[in-house]
Predict the structure.
Amino acid sequence: MERRYLKRIADEVLDKHLAASGAVLIEGAKWCGKTWTAEQKAKSTLFMQDPDKKASNLKAADTKPSLLLRGDNPRLLDEWQEAPVLWDAVRFAVDRAGETGMFILTGSAVPSDNVVSHTGTGRIARMLMRTMTLYESLESSGAISLKALFDGTTDGAGMSTLSIEELAFALTRGGWPASIGNSESIALQRTRDYVEAIINQDVSRVDGVEKSPARVRALMRSLARNVSTTANSSTIRNDISGDEDTISEKTIASYINALRRIHVVEDLPAWNPAMRSKTALRTSPKRHFSDPSIATTVLRMTKDSLLNDFNTFGLLFESLCIRDLRVYAEAIDGEVFHYRDKSGLEADAVIHLNDGRWGAIEVKMGAKEIEEAAEHLITLKVKVNTDKMREPAFLMVLTGGELAYKRKDGVFVVPLGCLKN
């Protein structure tokens, strides 16, 4: 039975890039749907990993790469990094033609340094594609739009139909397109297969440096145990010592860099706003995987085990929220950060748009923590120097509950199962 393509937020982002640039590079983790999305727009396709044609394609790339660019535009070059010379060939073709929307390149790994002679600036636009949000998988009602929050055009009222049990399942299943609509057993097996491929193959192939699968597994378990925290390399090393006691901080850094290049880990940077007083800001990023199901898989957690460990569930729920917020924010020209200062005041997410507007978010699973979270957000608002920066467009507590509403103090309470871009 043919799988049904579910509309992605990336569809509109890709359209914008194709209209403005000669070529578009779609990067992202394996299985996140890059090729499937690109195929919806492409009029011809080159699959570099097609085993029947791979040897011939590589030979063509070595002798006359322009041969591989022939076809109706937009032409999709899938896993282009198999022949890095294609990058320069695309850039040159775009330069010569002076047209937009000529090529779409997809890749699940960042190629080694110095494999291309030109960055492609001005010719090749870049977009990062992530796994599916709850809105894209049709699990969020989409009653509350992030754009509407920034524009001030929503009253904040809405309802989520997702129960805590369903959120736990969505978290362990992940946003992998092939798993949407499948049973828990099938979804979990697919994520296990994905993680095993990372550990045993992908992390070594990305830079050609052989890595110990045992060390990679231990590192990923530690990153999972420290998800949604600012754990540094020393903390990770000490945590790993129970699993693998011979790994150095230098090795940890090289392994994490390899995982970053195949889009498995994606840390959340710190926000550095203008403050009213000399407040010392923490600059360490927060640890996150590109999809929270990677963390649950390496920790060998299921929906039921999450429901029996709400401390871990809470940290992973925050990571799920960050994934969705990143997708929603980038669709409206924004980035996601976290905030923490010396006093311990923090915001789990700060969305900053390119036009200067910003909004702060605290993530809380249950209703009991909403009051304290709202107070923290209001305190942050007071600390930010609004003479140099705008007033926040909104303050929001993002929850695992069912009801969305606006509090008397102006803070929005929004279930993740209500949110969209």
